[in-house]
Design a protein that fits this description.
Elements: E1 2-9, H1 13-23, E2 32-35, E3 46-51, E4 63-65, E5 67-71, E6 76-80, E7 85-90, H2 91-102, E8 108-111, E9 115-120, E10 125-129, E11 133-141, H3 146-152, E12 158-170, E13 179-184, E14 193-202, E15 205-214, H4 220-234, E16 240-253, E17 260-262, E18 265-267, H5 283-298, H6 311-327, H7 331-341, H8 344-351, H9 356-365, H10 369-380
Parallel strand pairs: 1-2, 1-11, 2-8, 5-13, 11-18
Antiparallel strand pairs: 3-7, 4-7, 5-6, 9-10, 10-11, 12-15, 12-16, 13-14, 14-15, 17-18
Length: about 375
């Protein structure tokens, strides 16, 4: 039985971010173990986020944009981001960067094992894997059991943001490197929120992603058919090669995720509620959450920090999720009105839950009122 100060169960975005901030804190000499069955040696995902400040991951930002494109039947516009930039980090670059940084700390170690159980103990917690038992004062877990969450959230709204994407390469330069296409609703909505986004990597290479907000996933062929149709009909490309594939699922729910799974077991990542319920954006929220955890540990306090949205934003998200569940086809008009009637700073502050009540009211009153009134009444009664 090996003993550690901290065990991080899951070596993805939240687990590695937590380890990174620990190594840059007064706790850098703590004995830390990161456990993940995956070696994290593949580019299994891409994270996008906007910011007006420099980040600690500046050196691994693969693509950065100063404009976003928004396209729907209500508007077609390119929006300058002003003080903001939209940044994209590749999963593989993030994994390599953090692992390389942690290699300078012999007290931080990695093992590739499958976790079967995490148990609270009298003085800490234990992690049981297929190869051993490891104990620590605190265990931080990003392990997300969707079936368990769906069961716990049975009386709540629960949708999935699911997306499939291709990195394609064309024989001629066609992509604008200054802009990321954040929303393109030019695809059949099927009474759901469905859109494409396009992240240019070069003038002849880009990630094209098909995103859906719904309760159930599609068949693999349905994602592929929609991607081919969009590339052919909207992008008007026939001569291209598929370089990489991407697929993911993010929970979108008004379920309040628990901060802990026991007295010494702390949830992080989506398991703690770091995914924004109404948009799915996660990476920036993870950074805020794990930094607060490290601050508590440095103060010698229990690192129990909620990653859930504050109550008023939780209510806003609930109303929107109810609309997306019952009549997702309205989302094209709702998001179009948001981007038509507000400047980008107001929108980002609202989505970041940092704008204050005056900004919140400005956004809310710019949206079609009837769907939100009906949804609010539906949730109340």
């Amino acid at each position: 039985m090996d003993k550690f100060d901290y065990i991080i169960a899951g070596g993805g975005a939240s687990g590695l971010s937590l380890a990174f901030y620990l190594s840059n804190s007064s706790l850098k000499n703590a004995k830390v173990l990161i456990i993940d069955k995956d070696q994290k040696n593949k580019n299994d995902r891409t994270w996008g986020f906007w910011t007006s400040e420099q980040t600690v991951f500046e050196s691994i930002i693969a693509y950065q944009y100063k404009n976003i494109e928004f396209i729907s039947k209500f508007t077609n516009r390119t929006i300058p981001l002003g003080e903001y930039s939209y940044n994209v980090i590749k999963g593989i670059d993030f994994y390599r960067f953090v692992r390389s940084h942690l290699s300078m700390f012999p007290n931080f170690s990695f093992i590739s094992e499958s976790i079967s159980q995490i148990n609270d103990t009298e003085n800490g917690a234990e992690v049981i894997t297929n190869q051993g038992v490891y104990t620590a004062k605190w265990v931080f877990s990003s392990i997300f059991d969707e079936k368990e969450i769906v069961k716990a959230a049975a009386s709540k709204l629960y949708l999935r943001q699911h997306f499939a994407g291709w990195v394609i390469e064309t024989s001629k330069p066609v992509f604008d490197l200054k802009s990321v296409r954040m929303f393109d609703f030019r695809t059949p909505q099927e009474n759901q929120m469905r859109f494409f986004y396009v992240i240019p990597h070069s003038e002849n290479r880009a990630l094209v992603e098909f995103t859906i907000f719904s309760e159930n996933l599609l068949e693999k062929l349905q994602y592929e058919t929609a991607l081919r149709e969009y590339i052919s009909s909207i992008l008007e490309l026939d001569d291209y090669q598929i370089i990489e594939n991407e697929f993911g699922v993010i929970p979108m729910t008004n379920f309040r995720f628990p901060s802990t799974r026991g007295k010494h077991i702390i949830n992080i990542g989506s398991a703690a509620g770091s995914s924004k319920p109404s948009s799915g954006y996660t990476f920036a929220r993870i950074q805020k959450h794990v930094k607060k955890i490290v601050e508590k540990l440095e103060q010698g306090k229990a690192p129990v920090i909620s990653a859930n949205s504050p109550i008023k934003y939780h209510l806003y998200d609930s109303v929107l999720l109810n609309i997306l569940k019952r009549n997702g086809g309205l989302s094209e008009e709702i998001f179009s009105k948001m981007f038509i009637n507000n400047n980008i700073r107001q929108i980002f502050q609202f989505l970041d839950e940092e704008g204050g009540i005056r900004n919140d009211l400005k956004i809310i009153t710019s949206l079609p009122p009837l769907p939100f009134l009906r949804s609010t009444l539906d949730l109340l009664f």
